[in-house]
Write a structure and sequence with these properties.
alpha+beta; 3 helices
């Protein structure tokens, strides 16, 4: 089973507060999604900003393998005009 690990980051200074950081979990591994398809636009939109930029894996939490495959599928969807290159 997956254990929830918490990391505590201490900030020095006047406003000393504890910041709890959670480890990001890949969106595709727990759901057991085998393939990321360029035709599944609703799922791909989650990984693209309003401006049309691809969200990096450190923010989205996708694993390196999933992120590479995701970027490939987003670019493929852009080529056939399912996703926009930039916002209007």
């Amino acid at each position: 089973m997956l254990e929830k690990k918490r990391m505590v980051k201490k900030i020095k200074g006047k406003d000393a507060k504890k910041k709890i950081l959670r480890k990001k979990v890949c969106k595709f591994t727990p759901e057991e999604i085998e393939t990321i398809d360029y035709k599944d636009i609703n799922r791909l939109r989650y990984f693209v900003t309003e401006r049309g930029k691809i969200i990096p894996s450190r923010i989205s939490g996708a694993s390196a393998h999933s992120q590479r495959h995701l970027v490939r599928q987003i670019k493929r969807a852009r080529q056939i005009a399912l996703l926009p290159f930039v916002a209007e």
